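Ops channel
N.P.: pipeline sanity check, posting one input/output pair.
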């Protein structure tokens, strides 16, 4: 099992910044990718950014150039630096860990990000 705890959400004005953190604990064996997803009211959960153990990253087109994902493998922590925030970034942000074998996904409880215009 893997436990994920997100932190760093909050209320910020448009154009501001926030830094989300996800601390993972438990069995990290074969956890080779971690990422951030978000879900706005009435919308499906969507990928924001992901990062592999080797540091390869992937971003949603809507956040490219504004958000940066990073990972500290020694501390089992993933961060999401969010700059130039827009009201449409408002959502609950979830951390996800992917185990390659046996295949399994783990989710955090989510942290609210609200961007006011």
């Amino acid at each position: 099992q893997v436990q994920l705890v997100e932190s760093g959400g909050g209320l910020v004005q448009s154009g501001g910044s926030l830094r989300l953190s996800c601390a993972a604990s438990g069995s990290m064996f074969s956890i080779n990718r971690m990422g951030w997803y978000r879900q706005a009211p009435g919308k499906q959960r969507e990928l924001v950014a992901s990062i592999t153990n080797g540091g390869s990253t992937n971003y949603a087109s809507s956040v490219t150039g504004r958000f940066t994902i990073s990972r500290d493998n020694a501390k089992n922590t993933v961060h999401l630096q969010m700059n130039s925030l827009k009201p449409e970034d408002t959502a609950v942000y979830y951390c996800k860990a992917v185990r390659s074998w046996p295949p399994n996904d783990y989710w955090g409880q989510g942290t609210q990000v609200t961007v006011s215009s």
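N.P.: looks fine end to end. The mean pLDDT is 96.
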